Amino acid sequence: MKSKIQQGKRRRGTGIIAAGFLLVILAGAVLLMLPVSSADRSFTNPLDAVFTAVSATCVTGLVTLDTATHWSLFGQIVILIMIQTGGLGFMTVAVLLSMLVGRTVTPRERMLLGMSFSLGRYEKLSDILNRIVVGTFCFELAGALLLSTRFIPRFGFLDGIYKSIFHSVSAFCNAGFDLLGGYDGMSQTFGGDLVVCVTLMLLVVVGGIGFVVWDDLADRILKKRRLPVYSRLVLIVTALLLAVGTAAFAALEWHNPGTIGGLPAGKKLLFAAFQSVNLRTAGFTIINQAHLSESSQLLSVLLMFIGGASGSPAGGVKVATVGVLFYTIWSVSIGNKDAVLFGRKISAESFTRAVAVVGFQSTLIFAGALAILASKDCSIMDAVFEATSTVSTTGLTLGITPALGWVGKAAAMLMMYLGRVGILTVTYSVMFSLRESRSTISYPDANMLIG
């Protein structure tokens, strides 16, 4: 009986988190529809307002209206608040507000907060929350200060400060919203600026490795504790993906005049690194994605599918998921009974959760690609690229998603929402089901022909 009660609470917990994101989206959409939110003081089409709210809250970056020209300062601030809320997580903001007014955080709220960070334990969450909030604003402030050295000379003091803050928050939260006019503005204004590009890349990577890894790194530095297996796996896979992605894009696009073919060697490497980093679900771009070779588009799909780390604003199936899958498969293929990583065995539960997450994400992408093909005349590769970018909340586009009709846009909004919230729900549903099944009926094994 007690187990069933706990199961019900945990499942309701994932529902509360999903409903919280939906509440933020609806509130933001209503504000964006108001005349005060548009630059020309007119009402914004409800579909475009909802699309922008979903994209901002799910930290995707896909837009149907130019963020810099359509929205007023008020509208842009609404978008920025949704990005920050979506990046930190609904429960983080809710619990933080409760603490600010002196209200005690309940055990239920601690559980929900831990679930939103993808934590398996819920003790000492107040300490973790403090580190997350302080760390977030410190990184965003540092990023804004670095960006201001380039933005202030070009846009003036106040506008330069504002744009620096906006882009720093957007980059750290892996949102990809910009006030420079998308690809054209980014590439023409700051495409070759080392300070701007490197600052944005660092913010994206730091934000994308996840709050759990932050906490473990802080303990490593301050308390000299050894990094847990999970954090070591995240850091290794992240570094590997960034290095391989940069090298692969540079090689595939080196002579492509539509992307980096006409640039000096140094800028080619910078643009390739920027592309590799932002495919980790950030969405900033200084390369026209429509001009990428098919090989680069396929590589982009793979990197977007993987995404960032658990407990971060990044989307995708997550780097640890891919690490667990590939390492377990490799261990089995060479005849090992168990997959042992850094002296620890990867549990069957972890492998099952990884398979479930990959299966769920793949199903969403397949359905999304079908929806795009049904509503837009494009190639299968283009549809898969757009669907993967939407589901993984990356926000890069070949120009197809913003041009979709209302049915296609509605499907894109659903994909963004499920890509941001659905993975969390699936992960915890599988985890809780596996844990509770241990104490119930055990059935005989079935011998299946596999492979």
What do you see in this structure?
The longest helix has 32 residues. 47% of the residues are buried. The N terminus is likely disordered. This protein starts with a helix and ends in a 14-residue tail after the last helix. With 451 residues, it is an all-alpha fold. It is globular, with a radius of gyration of 22 Å. Strand 1 and strand 2 form a beta hairpin. It is 68% helix and 1% strand. Among the domains are: 114 residues, Helix Hairpins; 121 residues, Helix Hairpins (Orthogonal Bundle), CATH 1.10.287.
Defining key terms:
451 residues, mainly alpha, Helix Hairpins, two-stranded antiparallel sheet, 18 helices, disordered N terminus
How are the elements arranged and paired?
Elements: H1 2-33, H2 46-57, H3 67-70, H4 73-88, H5 90-100, H6 107-116, H7 125-155, H8 157-172, H9 182-190, H10 194-208, H11 211-223, H12 229-253, H13 265-278, H14 294-306, H15 319-333, E1 340-341, E2 344-345, H16 348-375, H17 380-391, H18 406-437
Helix pairs in contact: 1-2, 1-4, 1-6, 1-18, 2-4, 2-18, 4-8, 5-6, 7-8, 7-10, 8-10, 10-13, 11-12, 12-13, 12-14, 14-17, 15-16, 16-17, 16-18
Helicity, as a percent range = 55-70%
Uncertain segments are: 1-10
CATH architecture of the domain at 316-436: Orthogonal Bundle
* Gross morphology: globular
- How would you sum up the major sheet? 2 strands, antiparallel
- Helix/strand order, N-terminal first: HHHHHHHHHHHHHHHEEHHH
User: What is the top-level CATH class of the domain at 316-436?
Assistant: Mainly Alpha
Distinct helical segment count: 18
The class by helix and strand makeup works out as mainly alpha
Distance between the termini: 41 Å
From the alpha carbons, calculate the radius of gyration and give it in angstroms.
Answer: 22 Å
What portion of the residues fall into strands of 2 or more residues?
A: under 5%
Find the count of extended strands (DSSP E, 2+ residues).
2
Average pLDDT over all residues: 84
CATH topology of the domain at 316-436: Helix Hairpins
The strands making up the biggest β-sheet line up spatially as 1-2
